Amino acid sequence: MAMLVFGLTKRLPTSGSCISNTLRTGRVARYITQVTGEKTFFNRKRELTEFEKAFSGDPELHVVLGPPSSGKTSLIREVTTRGNFKPLFLDCRLGEFDSPTDLYNSISMQFKTFFENRRKLLRETLSEMEINAKIPYFSELNFKLFDKKEREITSSSVRAMLNKIARALPNQNLWKGYNVPPPIFVIDEANSLNRLGHGSAEGEVLLKTFLDWLVLNTKQANRFHVVLTSSDSFFIDWIVNRLHIPHVTQYVVGDLSKEEAEEYFEKHVLPRYGCKELEGKFDHVSKITGTRMLIIDRYVKEYKNSEGKLTASNFSVYNSEYLRLRDGLHPRGFKYSDKPDLPLWTGSELIETMKALVKAENQGYILEDDLINVVGVDKRKINSLCETSISKKLEHIGGFVYLGLTSLK
């Protein structure tokens, strides 16, 4: 996988594929990561250590981005559940932000459990009088979940609850002082946060209130870390426009290096499916699959199901990507109901852009200025490539453009 980096960045010596931690101040740090849907962790010691370090410092608002199935959720769950943290998880796939009632119930359930558990731990160390003196509102907080017999929960109800939580929570240093794991608030597929603001001015105000609450509890009051994960290409632009850059620390999850992917293929995937005949053939397989674990696993599974007769053109992922690319070679045929302007790029410019990204594979990314020099396109065309449906191939994530094709060799 390769990517195009927009804006000012500093090249750092790295190897392999990566998580890229990118700040608009110009710093890029990269860590290797990848997982499968089976919760199998492979070569993850460095990444886990780096994230544990990041989550153990002063509270930040972290945004973890990457293509679907790149291991974001599994990685964050592993770090937060195995480390010295008390994770509070919200999964936006479940409609947690569809309405004020959904938001109220999901947050109140997470924090209700947290407060009850922390009270028990603190009482093992402190007397009730000491607890009330150090965090006076902590023991008083009472969550009453939504009951159909009561009035409908409104935006005002949510705001009141958020204020109660903020008032009751101490600075993160208190937890550390008594060796009690501090909270870390994780929102998975956070791009669905915008559902709260759809269709009403009241919802938009509530969304802003919630985002401001996240900033308050991280940067301003140092109460807890917040981690937002997303597969949406433009989520970082959305969140940055609302919160401003100083409030966001951004990470991008990438794929394995070829060497690591080969080890995964030989030592983990082939034994699982009993395909000894593929041993030593990763050079051929990687031209079809790339180095994403999920795709490697799927290829071997389909190979097994086809009794060894699977060809590249019949592999489901490759075939789907090839058809999309073929459509992308004829951009003038694209029509969009929400985009009146035709794409600015040509099929040949798409090919040259993707070639430049592939050649940058070992580096992991390519700077926008370098791409302009190599391909000869301007910024308007690059933006057009990202904004049209060809972004299925060139995923614009957090200032990067990822090459979504499995192979271009």
TrEMBL record:
One of its GO terms (molecular function) is ATP binding. InterPro entries: Archaeal_ATPase_domain, ATPase_dom, P-loop_NTPase. Pfam families: ATPase_2 (PF01637). Residues 41-242 form the ATPase domain. Signal peptide: none annotated. This is ATPase domain-containing protein. The lineage of its organism: Eukaryota, Fungi, Fungi incertae sedis, Mucoromycota, Glomeromycotina.
